[in-house]
Amino acid sequence: MVLLTRNQQSPAAQQIQLEKSSSLYRLTPMLDEFGILRMDGRITAAPNVNECVKFPIILPRKHRFTYLLLNDYHRRFRHRNLETVVNEVRQQFYIPQLRVAVKQVTKSCQWCKTVRAELCIPRMAQLPAARLASFQRLFTHTGLDLFGPLLVKIGRSYTKRWIAVFTCLTIRAVHVEVVHSLSTRSCVEAIRRFVVRRGSPATIYSDNGTNFREASRLLQDQIEQLAATFTSSSTKWIFIPPGTPHMGGAWKRMVRSIKTAIDAAYSSHGKLNDETLATLVVEAEGIVNSRPLTYLPIPSEESEALAPNHFLLGSSSRVRLQAEADDSAADLQLSFSQIQLHLNTFWRRWLREYLPTLNKRTKWFGDVRPVAAGDLVVIVDESTRNKWERGRILEVIRGSDGRIRQAIVQTARGLIRRSVSKLAVLEVNGGCKTESDDQCYAGEDVGTGNTA
User: Fold this and answer.
1) For residues 443 and 106, what is the distance between their CA atoms, to the nearest angstrom?
2) Which residues 6+ apart lie within 8 Å of 112 measured at CB?
3) Quick check: 163 and 258 in contact, CB under 8 A?
């Protein structure tokens, strides 16, 4: 569409004769006294109506001036209310396919791209080997987290206590310890008690808490010494990326279960002391370890669903006592080989009943465009969106399946490591560089617009 003008301007409007093949023919265009192309419509006789409404200015949709005009309206109405922008523009101008033009201006707006940037989360990853390690000692692969505080009464004052939850990542059993503070020393003492009672884990998973970071350094030698006493393995401490609690969902969900079990009894116990709290958390541990891992089994000979306590106690909620115990025969039947046979039976049930339930993905099914070094991103956190930190990706980290799962981001406060599920890529462009109708229009030649 070409903007029509005339060489000599006259004070009266002048009708323009066009061929029927012209795109302006149905608009019955005219030139006003200033040489501006307007549409001669059918509401000329309407009273109390602005002349601009009766004779709107005709503008081509794919022109630099049209883009700047619509962009001004878009900013004037705070990047929102597309229909309001359409209505206001229509009061003075006629633009073919106006609503489409306004949408394309919105797509090319850098402010809107930043606010509506979407997370590019790759397909849900394969489960780590720690979640699938059957026929191994319990708590070989352990997740660790702390929660609290809980108030206990000592004398006439109240003191804070925290709870350390150790989760076996394979059978989802829990071990609970009361921690007197969030210091590194208290964390180390809780881990030492856990290692002595449950054995040294091959791997410990946790978030990036300061006490965990320091404890991993201090405990490296101590755990190896304890391991030399109780087992021949050494311990590796693995930290999930900062700000990604979903990567620790296997053990953080157990924290919620312990909280629920404790809260149910916390109010009924009244004022707690250290001894009562220690009893309460152990009872909560027993309740969580007795929960079924699967639905009730279909075969009638298996009367109860598999639970973590089957691996810990031999049954879902208690140790089954023998009817009689002879001095020789019964003792031989309860030998280590017999106990190992029962344990292998539980592991086979775990493989048959529980493992298939982990196979299905619950979200993040499709592949997305992976982030790359050099991408500008905003870092998702718990604050309001307009306060999210911005940065540039310097390095990407691939997972075991070859997909990019983490990235090193350069921000104003230095280098940080984040999961790609917390990075929203910004589409940045430099705007139109030409005013040609054929080569320049926002939304078509200016950026691709990865909008929400």
Assistant:
1) 8
2) 79, 106, 451
3) yes
Phi, psi for residue 26 in degrees, rounded to 5: -75, -10
Q: Taking all residues of the chain, what is their mean pLDDT, rounded to a whole number? A: 80
pLDDT at 390 over 80: yes
Q: What is the band of 46 on the pLDDT scale with cuts at 50, 70, 90? A: confident
pLDDT over 80 (residue 237): yes
Number of H helices, E strands in the chain: 12, 15
**Whole-model pTM?**
0.74
Are the CB atoms for 314 and 323 separated by under 8 Å?
no
Burial class of residue 33 in the structure, from the number of CB atoms within 10 Å of its CB (0-12 exposed, 13-18 middle, 19+ buried) = exposed
Given a contact cutoff of 8 angstroms between Cβ atoms, the answer to whether 166 and 198 are in contact is yes
Angle (CA) 93-95-100 rounded to 5° is: 130
Cα 111 from chain centre: 23
Return the axis-axis angle of helices 249-266 and 274-289, rounded to nearest 10°. Answer: 130
pLDDT in tens, 53-100: 888 888 998 899 999 999 999 999 888 888 889 988 988 899 999 999
- Higher model confidence: residue 353 or residue 296? 353
Question: pLDDT grade, residue 303 (50/70/90)?
Answer: low
Distance CA 145, CA 322 (A): 38
Residue 206 burial (10 A CB sphere; 0-12, 13-18, 19+): buried
Residue 38 parent element (H or E): strand 37-39
Give the span between the Cα atoms of 443 and 102, in whole angstroms: 10
d(CA 245, CA 208): 10
Closest to 162 measured CA to CA, from 105, 114, 212, 196:
212
- Which pLDDT band holds residue 384 (cuts at 50, 70, 90)? low
How many whole angstroms from its chain centre is CA 426? 17
What is the reported pLDDT for 105?
92
Query: Where on the phi/psi map is residue 348: left (φ > 0), alpha (ψ -120 to 50), or beta?
Result: alpha
